Amino acid sequence: MFEDRTREKVTTCIWWPMWHKDVAEYCKTCDRFQMENKSTGKRLGNMIKIQEPSRPWEIFHMDWVTGLPPGGDRSYNACLVIVDRFSKTPIFLPCHKDDTAMDTALLIWNRVVSWTGIFTNIITYHPQTDGLAERMIQTLEDMVRRFCAYGLEFKDCDGFTHDWCTLLPALESAYKTSIHASTNQTPAILEKG
């Protein structure tokens, strides 16, 4: 997956003879890259068929990433991950692991529904489904782990240190502009046309 995305990003900015081979070799031999990859083996069990949406943001999956170090100006320690089932577009929202149901509902209303419109169905943790949110969480964790592994925290001109929390919009953008293996399109194109 990351090899495909690396190859896709390289094609947009640079070219050299045999570059496909070089990118593949780099991804196969990079120790850090290999250590960070996770097994994506499917869980065994009965799958429950989910109605396929006819438009973006009709159905979305959501789950939480917890156990994160404090980040942002409000010391967030969790991230609500929301993924549109139609376009595979993610939204990463920093939050607190002890947020109430009302806090979460307001976060979804203010940051998702106001932008995407009314949805038909929300799929939360449900291991019998296809695990779309769980797979997105693995991808997000891989991206954040790679960011943190290189110590890429930086200070802007005002002296503010950027951490995992302030990185989330950039990670969303990177994912939205990468071709998704199951759709052969970028989530941004599927969402906005």
From TrEMBL:
<dbReference type="InterPro" id="IPR041588">
    <property type="entry name" value="Integrase_H2C2"/>
</dbReference>
<protein>
    <recommendedName>
        <fullName>Integrase zinc-binding domain-containing protein</fullName>
    </recommendedName>
</protein>
<dbReference type="InterPro" id="IPR050951">
    <property type="entry name" value="Retrovirus_Pol_polyprotein"/>
</dbReference>
<dbReference type="InterPro" id="IPR036397">
    <property type="entry name" value="RNaseH_sf"/>
</dbReference>
<dbReference type="Pfam" id="PF17921">
    <property type="entry name" value="Integrase_H2C2"/>
</dbReference>
<dbReference type="GO" id="GO:0003676">
    <property type="term" value="F:nucleic acid binding"/>
</dbReference>
<feature type="domain" description="Integrase zinc-binding">
    <location>
        <begin position="4"/>
        <end position="38"/>
    </location>
</feature>
<dbReference type="InterPro" id="IPR012337">
    <property type="entry name" value="RNaseH-like_sf"/>
</dbReference>
